[in-house]
Amino acid sequence: MSKKRALESFFTPASQKKARSDRAPSDSTALTPVCQHTTDHPTSTHSTYPHPVPHLPPHIQAALSEIPASEGRQINDQPDLDLLYFQPFIPSGIENELFRFLRKELFFYRVKYKIKRGGFETDISTPRYTTVFGVDQTSKFEPSASTLVDTKSSKPVPPDRYDCTPRPLPQCLDALRCITEVFTNSEYNFCLVNYYASGSDSISYHSDDERFLGAMPSIASFSLGAKRDFCMKHKPVPPGNDAKDNISDKPLKLPLGSGDMVLMRGTTQANWLHSIPKRSGKGTQEGRINITFRKALVKGGTENYYRYNVGDGGVWRWDEGTKEMKERKNGS
Ligand SMILES: O=C(O)CCC(=O)C(=O)O
């Protein structure tokens, strides 16, 4: 499918869309994304939001028609690794406006939780700001009413189905999700957002290999704002396994810049770990937003994502005066 067709598809109201049978630019099976955008309300509101989230300003929305700003580069020269790296995906010029818009308009959390380590309970403070929107594929938000309904029966989901409160994606993130679905040929029902306030914020080595994402998940990961290194290394391979000889000892390092997107797919999550290490020194103290789109299959995924990305603490918002996140009382 041509870029023009993909974008026509994106900007056409869902009610006018026909099923497509041709192929999208990446080389997997074609897909018809369902993207319903209303432009008649300037904000996204929902009973689960601490405050309304403005829609994308029209000029940012219009600039998204230039996506992707460059061809994706395949990185698959090591065992089990399958990446598509867009440098950038979001056109230069608009990506910093998008960064500032999302930092100002979204609400974040600084999640604390306890884990058992060596028989002892340990307190963990997530070293970055997080937020999450979406629900696994057993439920969906009816676009008109914003009500959570069961995907099979279309009946409202009983209040005790989840031990969290799922939230729909606001339009400003859903617009990007829709476009990303077209260009990655995958569906996404979750959006996780990280805000790294400075080089001291980080995410340690992990893989997104939870069973609730399925066997070979596609995860589209966007960077906005400060440049940070994205480090990847293969999971430990048992001695004697031939694959070991072909794996580099040095971690793979992608210097993610504002507007870049990395699509991790295939066997990547099952075999590779990734991280954003802490950084110090000149130029590392600026903020960075990371947005990932994923697809959770079952309710355990929804509960996991809200537990670790919303938690039960206060709401944080960007303060333009002091140029830092501030905890808001009563969602103000
Ligand atoms: O910030 C990034 O680029 C990575 C985020 C990440 O690994 C995650 O949210 O699982």
TrEMBL record:
Binding site for 2-oxoglutarate: N194, Y196, H206, H274, R288, T292, R294
Top-rank taxon: Eukaryota
Stretches that traverse the bilayer: none
GO biological process: DNA alkylation repair
Residues of the Fe2OG dioxygenase domain: 187-297
Gene Ontology MF terms: broad specificity oxidative DNA demethylase activity; cytosine C-5 DNA demethylase activity; ferrous iron binding
Binding site residues for substrate: D209
PROSITE patterns: FE2OG_OXY
Coiled-coil intervals: none
Compositionally biased region (Low complexity): 41-50
Region Disordered, residue ranges: 1-51
Designated name of the protein: Fe2OG dioxygenase domain-containing protein
